[in-house]
Design a protein that fits this description.
Elements: E1 5-6, E2 16-21, E3 42-47, H1 64-81, E4 84-89, H2 91-107, E5 113-117, H3 125-131, H4 142-149, H5 159-176, E6 193-199, E7 218-223, H6 233-248
EC number: 3.1.2.14
Protein name: oleoyl-[acyl-carrier-protein] hydrolase
Pfam families: Thioesterase
Amino acid sequence: MEKLVACVQKKPDAVCRLICFPWAGGGTSQLAEWGRLFNDSIEVFCIRLPGRETRLEEPFAKDMTSVVNEITSVLLKELKEKPFAFFGHSFGTYMSFAVALHLKEKYGLEPVHLFMSAAHSPNSAAYLAVKSIVLPDGSNDLLAIMEILGGNFELPHNEEVWRDMVLTFREDAKLFQTFSFEKTEMNTPFSCDVTYFCGSDDKIYDAKGWRELTSGDTSFYELPGDHLYLLKPSNESFLIKHITRSIEN
């Protein structure tokens, strides 16, 4: 559990767990800290993929299926134990969707709420277009690689940070391209509510398709900022309050 999940504040009496899935090239340092910001009713888990942080020595995951299987097998007991919600940002949105789909299809488990951020809905033409982009060969071409999953945000000036970011970002982009989803006419995978967030200065994402993926309510919020709008303290505060209210209601 400790290998896969970062939990900075355990809350055994929490009524719900919020499982957070970080963006491409990212780790757990930002979203895991949300555990200190939510009240005692919500415990925060943040997913840590191989190839980063305490899993730096492990090889990067090769496909989305292996990621989904690891997350599901490690967390199944906890997910059966009490209600849970998912928050995914950018690449994390697709990862959380893949896990939610697997849990519903194989175990009949469903999040009480899906909070999705800065990503195309997986049943949109834009999503398919991004999936088919050919990754550039040059390891320094971060801008082209970011076209796969990134958006508009400031790039690091430190060369070592840049190099590590390129490598991890590239591997996450390859991982993303191994996930496939096709919605059939009669298939509405979820019944939970879906809330979608994005930054006002980020690139445009096709998010309206979420309405077709659940029989629950869908809502959309644009917050000031770029692709990493959620790191701004005012936006973070809005997200914490909104997610808490949505879960407690």
